[in-house]
Amino acid sequence: MKPSRSAATPAADAPATRLMWIDADRTFYAGLLGVPSVRSLGAFTVYASLEAPVRVCLPDEQWQQCALAVVPPFLPHRVQCEGRLIGVLLIEPETLALDRLPDFLRSGQGALHEPVLLERIRATYARLRDAGSTADLSTANFDLTLWGECLPRRVLEPRIQAVVDAIKRDPRGRFSADDCAASVQLSSWRFLHLFKTELGVPFRNFRSWKRARSLLHYVTREASLVNIALEAGYPDSTHFSHSIRQVFGLKPKDIFAGSRKLAVYGERPVKESPPRRT
């Protein structure tokens, strides 16, 4: 899969310094951090220093200054960076066989000392910065570049996998637990229990994260935030603003303001969605 060129792709003689590569399973961001409050991302999150040290603060702990840090999915935290650029890698946990991951990713929290990984992240940034939309990346190639191997894939219970795939295909869809349970011929109670057992997170949290994550596809869109909120599947702008701030620690308007010079590569969000559930 060759990443598609976004409307924000810079001219050939002006390579982007701020960029994002994204598909359904991975996100690589190199850009501004802003001044986030507490954030809670639903992915394994790796913060990397591209110019200056990173500082992270986990619950009930002191600030840690480092070049590299990891935060598990859905763990509230704060992050700061003194430089203009920070590297952020998001890895969707439902795609990974957790018991076969490197120890520092599976159970690590906070500062890491993994110089090889840090250099690979910086090299990936340089590659994307120089190649832009011509970089030939897929999830497998991306993992191979960063980790030196393809990360082991997770195998979910087939009915739960079907629901996960449906939400990932259309994170804007208004999927209810009752509708999802019916679609795989389970009772609502059984579905919610099985979902949490398989993924380690409640269905509502998973669905909310995927919808919030889909905002990343829109950050260079020149449109009103109200229209973007509706297109991303939020019922109104108030709910949209609250949900995004809870996840990313920033107001939507601040995310968009910090993305004005961002080049976005990778998969575009779906243009046509199946009928949304009500």
Keywords:
278 residues, alpha+beta, 8-stranded mixed sheet, 3-stranded antiparallel sheet, 10 helices, 11 strands, 35% helix, 16% strand, globular, disordered N terminus, disordered C terminus
SSE layout and pairing:
Layout: E1 4-5, E2 19-22, E3 26-31, E4 44-49, E5 54-57, E6 64-66, E7 68-71, E8 78-81, E9 86-91, H1 103-106, E10 110-111, H2 115-131, H3 139-147, H4 158-169, H5 177-183, H6 188-199, H7 203-214, H8 225-231, H9 237-248, H10 252-257, E11 263-266
Parallel strand pairs: 2-11
Antiparallel strand pairs: 1-11, 2-3, 3-9, 4-7, 4-9, 5-6, 5-8, 7-10
Care to describe what's here?
It is a single chain. This protein has ten helices and eleven strands. Strand 5 and strand 6 form a beta hairpin. The longest helix has 17 residues, at 115-131. The radius of gyration is 18 Å and the shape is globular. Helices cover 35% and strands 16% of the residues. The strands form two sheets. Strands 1-11-2-3-9-4-7-10 form an eight-stranded mixed β-sheet, covered by helices on one side. It has a three-stranded antiparallel β-sheet with strand order 6-5-8, with no helix packed on it. Helix 5 (177-183) packs across helix 6 (188-199). With 278 residues, it is α+β, with helices and mostly antiparallel strands.
Quick structural overview:
The chain is α+β, with helices and mostly antiparallel strands. It has 10 helices and 11 strands. The chain has helices spanning 103-106, 115-131, 139-147, 158-169, 177-183, 188-199, 203-214, 225-231, 237-248, 252-257; strands spanning 4-5, 19-22, 26-31, 44-49, 54-57, 64-66, 68-71, 78-81, 86-91, 110-111, 263-266.
